[in-house]
Each structure stands twice: as structure tokens, then as C-alpha cells.
Amino acid sequence: MTTGLRFLVLGSAAGGGLPQWNCNCANCAAARDTSSGLLLQTQSSLAVSLDGETWAIFNASPDIRQQIQQTPHLHPKGLRHSPIRSVVVTNADVDHIGGLLTLREKQGFDLFCTATIGGVIDANPIFGVLDPAIVRRHAIRLDETFFPLEGLEARIFAVPGKVALFLEGDTPDLGLEGEQTIGIEFLVGGRRAYYIPGCASLPDWLCGRLHGADLVFFDGTVFADDEMIRAGTGHKTGRRMGHMPIMGDEKGPGSLHSLSGLEIGRMIYVHINNTNPIWRDGPERKAVTAAGFEIGHDGMEIGLA
After folding, report:
1. How far apart are CA 81 and CA 77, in angstroms?
2. Is the sign of the CA dihedral 95, 98, 100, 102 positive or negative?
């Protein structure tokens, strides 16, 4: 019996999680200190259900074993069983497909992805551990309806992005709109929700699509475009990595400004990098919450009746 859309944030952090294994930035150091109050966060993933019994997973994080273990809803109910009915992949980044290797234990589920993302999976023979006799692959097309769970109507749509890091050439196209980076639209009982963990920009057409939505999970990778450079943890900007910064600058507006006028019911940042200052109390976090936005965290649950 349908009870309404139910969302569980399995992982709220970007690739590497919080703390990242080789990083001792201020956030990572605090996350290792149990007295700091900053909790560990796993890599990007979302679980969705209509009845609380069967679930669809959106992005298979490398942390998926830990995420399942800390989420009783996803525990097996029999000797060999899983309430996970399907997995949907929004891009071919390692933090979104690496967990498929954990789901290799001869347990059946439906795997939904675009033909482009499926081609990346097929090109790496290690993913052959997913027995095609029991892991049923479905190629989904942009703007066509599919059902990751019975009764759960969803559509995928292209969002600005780029190919996965391990597929980049010397000069990757940072404004691609196609099957390599997608957003998910959920439609149940007149309610609209969106999951967009990776997005390079918010053009007018995308703002129009999100306008008036009941719920949006959006890419919160970096607060400032040059955040990683200033932190000394990397040499790439957020935009170079294919992620729109939360705060705008002379190069363009940030997602906080672009999304603020769209009359969205609840706006939640996910896929948050370990360097992002919104993880901790401070002016950046206050700017986000003062605008009515929420900061996702592992175990966060949201329901739409």
C-alpha cells in the first residue's frame, strides 16, 4: 500500500567521504575527533521507497556496504534476501558506480542507467561480476518515464556536467548536456521531487523545471569555486570538476542564489566535499540555512505524503 515518497540519505558526502582517508583538512581532522560534534559522512547515495519495505538506491557508493549496515530498512529479512529492488546510476564517477562491485553476491535487482553510462560499465570487465542472469540491466532514455519501484514514476533528464574523471582527456568539455550526467525527477500523487547530486550550472531551462518542486536534493560539492585551492588540498576549481559552487563569484552565480527564487518546498544540499565549510558552524553554514536551505547528512529522512 502506497504511503507516499520516502527518502533516506545514505551518503551525503562527495567522493572520498568525510573524513577522506588521506586528508587532514580542518573538516577531516574534526570528523576524526569524537569530541568535535562533526559526524562521519559517507559517499553520495540516496534510498527511496513508497512503502518502507522495498527500496530503490540512487547511486551505488563505494560505501554501500556500510550504508546498508547502518540502515535497518535495508537489512535482509531472510537467509538470502534484500529489500533493494533496483539501483539507478546518475553518472559514471567512481563514487557512484564503485558500490556495484559490493552488490555482486548473487542477489537479483534491476540496474537502471543511460546507454552512455552502461557503456562505461561494460568497458570495464571487472563489472562482469554482476551476473546478467540476475542483475537485470535497463537502458533508460532522457525524459522517458521508468519505474524503479512498482508505483514509483521517475524520469531522467540531462544536466550540465562532464564525463567521469577517469575518462577525461587533456581538455574535457565542462558544459556537456547529455546522457553522461543526469538528474532524477520523482512523480507520485501530484508531488514532485528531484535528485541532482552533480551539476555544473543552472541554466534557465533547468530552473524552470525545478520551479515549484516539493523537494530538491542538489549538488553542494563546494561552497566557493576556489575552495580546494585555498585549502591547499587540490588545484582544481569546483567548476573545473563539473560542480556549480554554492556561492557565486565574478565567473557567475552560485546555486544558492539561482535556486532561492524557485519556490521549492525543501532544498537540501548533498554530495558535499570534505573541504566545504558548511559542514561546521560558521558564516558559510549560516548563509545557507538563513536562505532556508538544509545541509544533508547520513541518515537524514524526508517524507512526502
Report:
1. 6
2. negative
Q: How far is CA 232 from the centre of its chain?
A: 25
| Radius of gyration over every alpha carbon of the chain, rounded to an integer in angstroms | 18
Taking only the tens place, the pLDDT of each residue in 87-146 is 999 999 999 999 999 999 999 999 999 999 999 999 999 999 999 999 999 999 999 999
Q: Give the C-alpha distances (Å, rounded to integers) separating 283 from 179, 287, 303.
A: 37, 6, 29
- Cell 561546521 appears where? 280
Each domain of the chain, given as residue ranges in start order, spans 5-304
Q: How far apart are CA 83 and CA 73, in angstroms?
A: 8
CB atoms under 10 Å from CB of 197, counted, come to 32
The answer to whether domain 5-304 has CATH 3.60.15.10 is yes
Distance separating alpha carbons of residues 146 and 148, to the nearest angstrom: 6
| Helix (H/G/I), strand (E/B), else coil: 183 | strand
Q: Closest Cα to residue 302, out of 2, 4, 1, 6?
A: 6
According to DSSP, the residues that pair with 267 across neighbouring strands are 216, 293
Closest-CA residue to 97 (of 121, 116, 114, 75): 121
197: Cβ–Cβ under 8 A, 6 or more apart, which residues? 44, 46, 59, 90, 96, 217, 218, 219, 270, 271
Q: Please answer whether residues 264 and 236 qualify as being in contact, where contact means their C-beta atoms are separated by less than 8 angstroms.
A: no
pTM: 0.96
